[in-house]
User: Fold this.
Amino acid sequence: MSAQGYALTMQNLKPFIDQARLDLAELVALESVSAQGRMLAETANRVSEMLQAEGFTVQAYLGDVAPILVAEAGEGPRTLLIYNHYDVQPESPIELWDSPPFEATERDGRLYGRGISDDKGEFISRLAAVRALKAQNGGKLPLKVKWLIEGEEEIGSPSLARFVHEHASELQADGCWWEFGSIDPEGRPIIYAGLKGIICLELRAKVSDSDLHSSLGAVVDNPLYKLSRAIASMRDASGKVTIDGFYDDVRAPSEADLEAVRNIPDESAATRQAYGIKGYLGGVSGEAYYRRLIFEPCLNVNGFHGGYGDAGSKTVLPAEGFVKIDFRLVPDQSPERILELLRAHLDGQGLEDIEIIELESHEHPARSDVADPFVQTALQVASEVHGKPAVLQPSSAGSGPMHPFIEAIGLPVIAAGIGNHASRVHAPNENIVIAHFEKGIEFGLRFMERLSKL
Amino acid sequence: MSAQGYALTMQNLKPFIDQARLDLAELVALESVSAQGRMLAETANRVSEMLQAEGFTVQAYLGDVAPILVAEAGEGPRTLLIYNHYDVQPESPIELWDSPPFEATERDGRLYGRGISDDKGEFISRLAAVRALKAQNGGKLPLKVKWLIEGEEEIGSPSLARFVHEHASELQADGCWWEFGSIDPEGRPIIYAGLKGIICLELRAKVSDSDLHSSLGAVVDNPLYKLSRAIASMRDASGKVTIDGFYDDVRAPSEADLEAVRNIPDESAATRQAYGIKGYLGGVSGEAYYRRLIFEPCLNVNGFHGGYGDAGSKTVLPAEGFVKIDFRLVPDQSPERILELLRAHLDGQGLEDIEIIELESHEHPARSDVADPFVQTALQVASEVHGKPAVLQPSSAGSGPMHPFIEAIGLPVIAAGIGNHASRVHAPNENIVIAHFEKGIEFGLRFMERLSKL
Assistant:
């Protein structure tokens, strides 16, 4: 790791790290569970105070269930927009935690607690980086930092897209630093430059008002058959979606995207082993595996339920059933268009009576230009801080509300952060590796300093 | 209703009816739940005593979980084999009963109790008919009556087929009177001359050892999609089964079968309304409806379960799932052959890894020659007793262990009895209409008398 040219080394970062650990413990203690509306205003207020203490001006806006904070500080030719969230997932099942979820607890080089990774550890490490950068710079931030912090991310960010569209001009910047990122088991930082879109749907079929004896199956259609036929008609055995027009708007990867994918270390075998996965579609690995994960949309069946499910048999013809599915979308697919295509597809299959229910607000896909200097700067700084070449994924396989930042404000976005492959985000014993938290502060410091000089 | 030529009229049947009501109450009080192994030996003993009291010699054989009784009485050129069972379904959910399930209780012209229709009321009405026939005949039965009564019918008759095959010669007769039958809402007796076969299966698919995040759906197959594809590949939208060879052994209905079906009063609209059925496959009604129900095999999906099933969405790729299905078979399809065809079909679809589990012993289909004098006699007597033309269904749409009686012993079989369309068999408040019970005794008396003179 090279520290040349930086006034602060890891050693003299120590006071900032110590302060950040205290701040993080304080924030984890606030039970800001958005799904249950717990302590959202209190947490927003505390976050606001922390930002104000570093010289930020903070404006609070009303979201659907929690305040949206927009903070601003610093001056310089460059502007960085940071996106984080202060809400967390519910802590249940509480009995599976080895320490109280709302007490930041150190064990074996890690810190445990709800939200310690997602997203309070990310926020606090960046706040500590701002503090260190100011200290190094005579109390001034050498770039403008705009900070958008919401409290509804864990319930699907219902207010965010509208907010970003309405405030696009105030949020203008040179790039956006996304709320997460991770370090792989080999200690390599992974940086994402996009997120897939998602639509979550329920399909429902009903053939009668009450369950029937299955002997009537000779004359009465079966709702579980109808749903099976719907699902089977929507993709093929190779995983390709067979809805007419589904791929029309898929953006081809750029040469830089493909180059990035060629450089991703192949974790497919390790993932396969970790989860006991019997095999990958098409037997892919390496480059082909990541091309599918990053550039290909897909259809998942999340759940299928109807009729008898206990031991043995029951000769019932169920009245109804439902399937829950998600589509993962890639640029430039549009959720609205895919919904229209799906309805037309089912109608074309003679399945007009299958009801489509939207389960939550969908996310548009978004992918930055990986050749953008903002993306390349993040990659270079991360490689220097971690002493290993950073891995650039043009998009995560997951989804999130990144689209308005890229499309409405027009920003390049990078996701770089302090998560690890065993962070247990959304699960009991959520954790971060303390060394990653410290590296995260160092990355933030150097990334902002480098950006200020771009 | 014509009573000419019969020594006993409904009026002087009264003492036999009174005795039968007492016998039935006594038998209902015995909690012979085969699924739970309750009171099976006690009930078998009491049934045996009742038969012996009417002059039957009774042999008891060991079934898998309950004794099989074979009784014999009477002399004459004709022999009737009667099949009944003394076991009942569990009484749960107990809270939905309006009177104690094991106390025969009269309300509004009906008798309520577990097994009062299925099958204790059937057995007792026939025993009362034997008593009346003997009384009319100077204490002698003018035909030989063989009575096979098992205690495992409600758990799929696991011992019966083997027993009938092994005892085929002792069970020889001119025809077999099956354990059930019913009276329709218009008061017309319905007589069945066959039963469909059945195979109950579970299909299982598994893609990994633990659930995955659904973003991996781009590279990992989905067990619920695989099962959907399996189901969708096994039939088409019209209800036709699309497994190669599935229809090869289907026996065409005879001219007499078709004539019988043309005479079935069309209850399809009433059934549709009663259950709120949205429509029938192919829009059938009348003759076409009954041809499908009686002569066509079919595939039913009884249940489909896997993955997330609660409110909202969960972006999970489930590790596994299962589907429960039944095939209803018609003569001369064989369950063993259909199982082979299904395995070959799934393999041919590239679904070799879908596991097929047999859920219980299957039933072979069976259908009698409806032109047989034994069948025609039952039809004629039932029409006389009920004062309305009896309805002949060449087969029930349901299933049961009739096959060895027709195929191994070579008997014509008729199912004629005292059930009604609201008997709530297997459900709380199981009941019979008292007038049907009395008609059942009269039918038995006249049917046996007529058979003795054939």
